[in-house]
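Private note to self, pasted from the team thread so I don't lose it. Backbone tokens:
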């Protein structure tokens, strides 16, 4: 197993946000983490990256218990996070942002440039002068440059123009075709269901449904994802 989350409970101060999350992922899988706003998707991701310490339950990544590890140690184990709200180093150029993240593996600068040709065109530009979509591509590129075993995309297409969204989705599909394991949160259900192997739905910090996109009926969507 690539990832085994078992009985995860997390808190913000005294306020409990997760009440026992279970999530398994095999290598090469694309898993969609779903649920309405505030149901615990980002909190699950933060706990997994140890940005938020969790109090109960266990998280094993490639068989290793990550409890007690600092966030940078978890990243080094092979978890590449593209956080909500895309974080790049704004005072570094595109090129610098990519190379500072680099760790040996299949993903190199050349391959990132091939995946996102716009980044190649902008390689000398400071990250804070990029459009939102370009910053998002850079955030994905940076995460890939670490050659992660697991790539996590939290709302990677949020707030972007439709044409840019499509570029991000085709990159996600290309990554999937290469066997990249991806845990993904996104509000665009149509695209999400096309790329996911399995879906996990959270409600109020707990799992309420698990299955394939084909099994996700209109009724389930209405019950757990409808507004
Ligand atoms: P969204 O799509 O809105 O980001 P989400 O499913 O990712 O939703 P979380 O952000 O994980 O939801 O939020 C889960 C719960 O934790 C919510 O009840 C939220 O109010 C609470 N929460 C999130 N961040 C904090 C914080 N920094 N401090 C206190 N409570 C928080």
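Design output:
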């Amino acid at each position: 197993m690539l990832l085994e989350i078992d009985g995860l409970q997390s808190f913000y101060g005294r306020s409990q946000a997760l009440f026992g999350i279970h999530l398994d992922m095999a290598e090469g899988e694309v898993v969609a983490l779903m649920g309405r706003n505030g149901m615990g998707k980002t909190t699950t991701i933060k706990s997994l990256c140890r940005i938020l310490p969790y109090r109960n339950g266990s998280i094993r990544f490639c068989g290793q218990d990550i409890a007690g590890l600092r966030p940078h140690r978890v990243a080094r184990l092979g978890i590449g996070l593209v956080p909500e709200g895309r974080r790049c180093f704004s005072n570094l150029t595109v090129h610098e942002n990519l190379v500072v993240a680099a760790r040996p593996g299949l993903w190199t600068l050349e391959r990132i440039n091939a995946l996102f040709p716009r980044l190649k065109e902008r390689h000398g530009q400071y990250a804070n002068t990029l459009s939102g979509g370009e910053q998002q591509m850079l955030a994905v590129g940076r995460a890939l440059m670490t050659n992660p075993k697991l790539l996590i995309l939290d709302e990677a297409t949020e707030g972007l123009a439709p044409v840019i969204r499509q570029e991000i989705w085709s990159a996600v599909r290309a990554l999937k075709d290469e066997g990249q394991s991806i845990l993904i949160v996104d509000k665009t259900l149509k695209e999400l269901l096309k790329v996911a192997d399995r879906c996990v739905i959270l409600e109020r910090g707990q799992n309420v449904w698990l299955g394939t996109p084909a099994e996700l009926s209109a009724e389930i969507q209405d019950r757990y994802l409808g507004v």
